[in-house]
Amino acid sequence: MVGPPPDTWAVAPDRARAFCMSPGVWQLRLPLPWPAVPHVNAYVLESGDAPVLVDCGSAGHPSHRAALAAALGGAGLSVGDVGMLVGTHAHSDHVGLAEWVIAESGCEFRMHPDTAHFYDAFREPERTRQARERRARQEGVPEDELGAYGDVREETEGILAAIEPDVPLRDGDRIGAWHVVETPGHAPSHVSLFDPERRIVLLGDLLAPVFAPWFDYGYSADPIAEFLGSLDRIEALGPMELSLPGHGRALEDLGAALALHREGVAQRLEATLAAISSGPAGAHVLTGRIFGHLPPVEAVWRLTEVACCLRHLRRAGVVVRHEDGDGRFWYGRA
Q1: Considering only CA atoms, which of 284, 282, 231 is closest in space to residue 254?
Q2: pTM greater than 0.90 (yes/no)
Q3: CATH code of the domain covering residue 236
């Protein structure tokens, strides 16, 4: 479940910025139309004969193209200069403009190949909508709210096309000096990039200055376990001189950020168990107990998060899922 799109996809291109973070590493701050997520970071890496663009922002409105062009201009580049596009993961705000960047530059596109978690809805919107509504109904979502939970417009409007990578990225692959590290959890397709000589890491949406979790549900066995394992993988790389996330400012203390996100996950799991202790219920009711009344977009995001917590707790043997005579789920302590 992804939820309804923003009220408008339009952004103000003059909000785009470019910052030199280190010699040969530019951060492009691209505006987004989501009230709670006002921008996304793309990065330009000077590499060989042509620059590498890591992520490219959302689509949905022509103003996103103007914003990316403006940000690249701040780094002294144009879209046509891009020699390679790398996607940290297949979400609209990271690869929405991939088709346009490739068409304008003729560049190669590299990304992890496990893209079904986002591209399925673009390619088969009606089937995906029905599947989402069916699962939402099983989790106790009222009939008059199902439309928000089945909505596929972020996938159908937020990217120009479901572009598969020319070169699939896997753990240990190299892009110049940068090593690819598979870091799933936020999404099955998620990777991070690590320069071991300069001790710089591009984190995508694995970490942020604040704990604001989003986990794709239904395309891996346990997104939360994957996420925690990815935090371990980044920590194992050792101390960093520069840690650059997909949203927000550079992380001043990577170790503290890792601890913050581990603690955030632990608190969410504890909150889910506490909600169940108030009485067995489906994920919709449990979400309300944990987060209170929410606007439609956030309600879908939070139910997806709670579903991932329940999945993790079920695999740990702490929670059991039951099904009533109407096909609706409810959860109790094991």
Answers
A1: 231
A2: yes
A3: 3.60.15.10
